[in-house]
């Protein structure tokens, strides 16, 4: 029989053995990963330190760590690891990796609560690709040309309700006109003519139900989620009625709704009402806020930096000398100055400042200094258009609003290849709505430049960081005075 002293000795020996074994295993693991060079890890207090730093300001945190650790580093948030890849040199695999290696599904799954079942991140990848193809076809070629006609008449009609002079919140006004255009071109005539106000309210509830907390707990019973669910259900009913009556009438319209109704999957199956509703909501989500935010930032920068406003007005005069007051697809393509002004606003203020993927297998990235780092399987992987678009080795005076950086001869957006400019993402999941977005924003701004003198009366705005899509904080108050551009002056 063992006495107490023997027991204590055995316990101590057992503990020592356990400690030695753990140390040995750690050494083995360490020596194994030593050759692999994992990305450096951000210093933060244990358990919640990383979360606190990230929530306090993800973009300032990325800048600080980029300066300290370089273009690839890992942040530990609770039991998750997020590896950031900053800059074109290290983000090739992020944008071009195969879905089986680096996927969106896990990280964007929270959108299912708003989009509904059977679409986007609720279906297997092959089906999602087919659904994206329907969008792609609906926003290219002749469809786009036809949409421009609708965009122009929406802008003409909307701004007639402004008086001869006054003060407006330009942010609100641009949200409204972009939503009208989106409704008309994508959601269809029925929504635009009869249900616009209802859809606008329901869409607002849907957007407000996509909060940072929704990414981790999409079904948390909070009031914002309950409003989101009610809005989703009501939109489902409304679209179901529209789809039924359109099918019954046999009439075909020039909008995305029609493309979705007419589509048949590769196996011959037609789209269901639920899928059409979900896809319309998804496209509204992808295109509405992003475009209205970009229109607003374009205005803020043009009105703050008056030399660019004047250059854009001059360009309108030149275009009007050739085409009179008309605006169509080809005429918009002649507005290079305006295009660069929008593009530069997007570089400085991308509405989607962080993009995510989930890594299913280890992969290696090589930094521009030639260092090889292995990003392990199981990490979330992120990149940031907000940071990547201001890297000083790509953009000269990166914090300055300078649309001419995109002019021929400078082409800074191509300095380090295709991934130098990423407000629309890049590679495999590059935004399919880019052209549509530019067309609608430029149509609206061409109308404003031709018909109004504008002056910014509120301070230059800050960014609004409390939502998934980052917009303009507060109002953008602008004084306007109606005038017609006199061509030839
Ligand atoms: C200024 C306006 C816009 C911005 C800044 C923007 C930005 C982006 C970005 C960054 C992505 C890539 C997301 C990722 O890689 O995780 C993306 C994808 C996408 N965008 Fe846009 N977008 C805009 C307008 C639009 C419009 C107007 C539409 C529809 C008409 C649209 C539809 C889509 C779709 C369907 C995808 C997913 C493509 C895929 O996964 O293959 N976007 N957008």
CATH topology: Cytochrome p450
In whole angstroms, how far apart are the ends?
A: 110 Å
CATH architecture designation: Orthogonal Bundle
Task: Find the CATH superfamily.
Answer: Cytochrome P450
Classify the beta-strand content into a percent band.
5-15%
Query: How many helices?
Result: 19
Structural class: alpha+beta
The ligands found in this model are: protoporphyrin IX containing FE
Unreliably modeled segments: 1-34
How many domains make up the coordinates?
1
Indicate the radius of gyration in whole angstroms.
Answer: 26 Å
Anisotropy-based shape: globular
Largest sheet: 5 strands, mixed
Count the E strands: 12
Adjacency order of strands in the biggest sheet: 1-2-8-5-3
Instruction: Kindly state the percentage of residues in helix.
Output: 40-55%
What value does the average pLDDT take? 90
CATH class: Mainly Alpha
Keywords: Heme, Iron, Lipid biosynthesis, Lipid metabolism, Membrane, Metal-binding, Methyltransferase, Monooxygenase, Oxidoreductase, Steroid biosynthesis, Steroid metabolism, Sterol biosynthesis, Sterol metabolism, Transferase, Transmembrane, Transmembrane helix
Pfam family, one: p450
Cofactor: heme
Family: Belongs to the cytochrome P450 family.
What does this structure look like?
Its EC number is 1.14.14.154. It is found in: Membrane. One of its GO terms (molecular function) is oxidoreductase activity. This protein has a single domain (36-482), classed as Cytochrome p450 (Orthogonal Bundle). The chain contains 19 helices and 12 strands. The chain has helices spanning 4-34, 49-56, 58-69, 92-96, 105-108, 112-115, 125-138, 141-160, 170-187, 189-208, 212-216, 223-249, 256-262, 273-304, 306-323, 329-332, 336-348, 385-388, 434-451; strands spanning 72-77, 80-85, 102-103, 165-169, 355-359, 363-366, 372-375, 380-383, 452-456, 463-464, 471-472, 477-482. A hairpin with a 6-residue loop joins strand 10 (463-464) and strand 11 (471-472).
């Amino acid at each position: 029989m063992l006495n107490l002293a023997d027991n204590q000795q055995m316990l101590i020996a057992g503990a020592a053995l356990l400690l030695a074994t753990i140390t040995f295993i750690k050494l083995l693991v360490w020596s194994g990963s030593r050759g692999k060079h994992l990305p450096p890890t951000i210093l933060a207090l244990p358990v919640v330190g990383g979360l606190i730093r990230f929530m306090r300001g993800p973009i300032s945190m990325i800048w600080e760590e980029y300066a300290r650790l370089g273009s690839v580093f890992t942040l530990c948030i609770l039991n998750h690891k997020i590896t950031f890849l900053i800059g074109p040199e290290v983000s090739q695999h992020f944008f071009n990796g195969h879905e089986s290696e680096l996927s969106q599904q896990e990280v964007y799954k929270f959108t299912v609560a708003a989009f509904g079942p059977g679409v986007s991140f609720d279906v297997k990848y092959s089906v999602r690709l087919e659904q994206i193809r329907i969008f792609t076809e609906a926003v290219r070629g002749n469809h786009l040309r036809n949409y421009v006609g609708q965009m122009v008449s929406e802008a003409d009609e909307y701004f007639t309700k402004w008086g001869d002079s006054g003060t407006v919140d330009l942010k609100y006004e641009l949200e409204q006109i972009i939503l009208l255009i989106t409704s008309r071109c994508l959601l269809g005539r029925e929504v635009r003519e009869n249900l616009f106000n209802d859809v606008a309210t329901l869409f607002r509830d849907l957007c407000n139900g996509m909060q940072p907390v929704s990414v981790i707990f999409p079904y948390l019973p909070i009031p914002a989620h309950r409003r989101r669910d009610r809005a989703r259900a009501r939109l489902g009913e409304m679209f179901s009625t529209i789809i039924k009556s359109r099918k019954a009438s046999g009439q075909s319209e020039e909008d995305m709704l029609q493309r979705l109704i007419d589509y048949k999957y590769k196996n011959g199956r037609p789209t269901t009402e639920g899928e059409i509703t979900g896809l319309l909501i998804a496209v509204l989500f992808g295109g509405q806020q992003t475009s209205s935010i970009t229109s607003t930032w374009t205005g803020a920068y043009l009105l703050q930096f008056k030399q660019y406003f004047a250059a854009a007005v001059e360009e309108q005069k030149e275009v009007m000398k050739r085409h009179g007051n008309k605006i169509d697809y080809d005429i918009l393509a002649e507005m290079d100055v305006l295009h660069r002004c929008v593009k530069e606003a997007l570089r400085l203020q991308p509405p989607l400042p962080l993009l995510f993927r989930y890594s299913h297998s280890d992969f290696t990235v090589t930094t521009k200094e030639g260092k090889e780092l292995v990003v392990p399987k199981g990490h979330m992987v992120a990149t940031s258009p907000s940071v990547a678009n201001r890297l000083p080795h790509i953009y000269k005076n990166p914090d300055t609003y300078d649309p001419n950086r995109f002019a021929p001869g400078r082409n800074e957006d191509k300095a380090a290849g295709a991934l130098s400019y990423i407000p629309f993402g890049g590679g495999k999941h590059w935004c399919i709505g880019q052209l549509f977005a530019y067309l609608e924003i430029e149509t609206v701004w061409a109308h404003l430049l031709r018909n109004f003198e504008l002056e910014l009366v509120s301070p230059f705005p800050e960014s609004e960081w409390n939502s998934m899509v980052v917009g303009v904080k507060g109002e953008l108050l602008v004084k306007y005075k109606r005038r017609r551009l006199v061509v030839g002056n």
